Amino acid sequence: MSTSETIIAVSGLSKTYESGFQALKTVDLEIRRGEILALLGPNGAGKTTLISIICGIVNPSGGKVTVDGYDIVGDYRQARSLIGLVPQELTNNLFDTVWATVNLSRGLFGKAPNRAYLEQVLRDLSLWDKRNEKMMALSGGMKRRVLIAKALAHEPQILFLDEPTAGVDVELRRDMWEMVRTLRDKGVTIILTTHYIEEAEEMADRIGIINRGELMLVKEKVVLMRQLGKRQLIIQLQQPLTALPEAVQGRAVELADDGCMLTYTFDAQGEQTGVGDILRALAREGVEFKDVNSSQSSLEEIFVGLVHDSNRDRAQA
């Protein structure tokens, strides 16, 4: 299945609440069929509002959203039937069994009964042995699994995961991401919001960064890492230095507090990285190296830097 085909188109989307709070400001976004898109942003950035509008839970103040060609307002039922949503909050009837909860969710979307499909969903989520237990008897992690099963019950083409692993244990997180990969391999489009940046770095095909209601950028993960990630040359010294060598002063070189390490930050995409110049200059001053290696900025460092720069620009405006 082609991942270049647009399955969700968001155009000029905005949302201002009655209080006057502007949660979204003219968001444009195209989501490709069969991709995993991670939406990153601090609390209150607009991630949940964006998801809620696409899923038909919140009405937009302006703009348009189509899901596989269906308008989310004018063709609500058709659009919503294509979407599965796993919300942040644990919302279930605590007196129902796991099986009844998932079976009801399928029926609400008008799908014919399919016991074999629901059984497979529950098995994939390690819930089959719990199928006859009431929701109130389950742990928080198991309730989270049931939310995912409910979202998948009607065989959606698109799955939204809103902070799906917040507060869950490591095992559940691992199981969940394994399931996400399996769904993507089957052609399901997955959009997730997460505070766990390392998960977005591992899982996503593309990454969108939201801050203060604005979609700052959407890029292929590898392109984002390459364009915005800085590389660092880390030089371990044979003998500690008391001051930064004169030959590298004025360059992006820092001396560690203990004097045993120099760190040079550079743009790996630049025509001249300056690495050779730095090493030669140090050698001329008689600085001896114990070890030299390089590292690339993590997605978290890129994200924090972008949001910090955006907030600083606003403060100065």
Short description:
The protein is α/β, with parallel strands linked by helices and 317 residues long.
Architecture overview:
- α3 (98-108) runs parallel beside α5 (140-152).
- This protein folds into 2 domains: 6-226, P-loop containing nucleotide triphosphate hydrolases (Rossmann fold, 3-Layer(aba) Sandwich); 230-296, Alpha-Beta Plaits (2-Layer Sandwich).
- With 317 residues, it is α/β, with parallel strands linked by helices.
- β9 (206-211) and β10 form a beta hairpin.
- Helices cover 34% and strands 27% of the residues.
- The chain has helices at 47-54, 76-81, 98-108, 115-124, 140-152, 170-185, 197-203, 221-228, 275-284, 299-316; strands spanning 6-16, 22-32, 36-40, 62-67, 70-71, 83-86, 158-162, 189-193, 206-211, 214-220, 231-237, 253-255, 261-266, 289-296.
- The strands form 3 sheets. Strands 6-7-8-3-9-10 form a 6-stranded mixed sheet, sandwiched between helices. A 4-stranded antiparallel sheet has the order 2-1-4-5. Strands 12-13-11-14 form a 4-stranded antiparallel sheet, with no helix packed on it.
- 31% of the residues are buried.
- Residues 8-237 form the ABC transporter domain.
- InterPro entries: AAA+_ATPase, ABC_transporter-like_ATP-bd, ABC_transporter-like_CS, ABC_transporter_ATP-binding, P-loop_NTPase.
- This is ABC-2 type transport system ATP-binding protein.
Work out the number of β strands. Answer: 14
In N-to-C order, the SSE pattern is EEEHEEHEHHHEHEHEEHEEEHEH
Strand share of the residues?
A: 25-35%
CATH superfamily of the largest domain: P-loop containing nucleotide triphosphate hydrolases
Total domain units: 2
> What Rg is obtained from the alpha carbons, in whole angstroms?
24 Å
**What structural class do helix, strand and pairing data support?**
alpha/beta
| Low-confidence region ranges | none
| Helical segment count | 10
Could you give a short account of the major beta sheet? Answer: 6 strands, mixed
Keywords: ATP-binding, Nucleotide-binding, Transport
Protein name: ABC-2 type transport system ATP-binding protein
Organism: Halopseudomonas litoralis
InterPro entries: AAA+_ATPase, ABC_transporter-like_ATP-bd, ABC_transporter-like_CS, ABC_transporter_ATP-binding, P-loop_NTPase
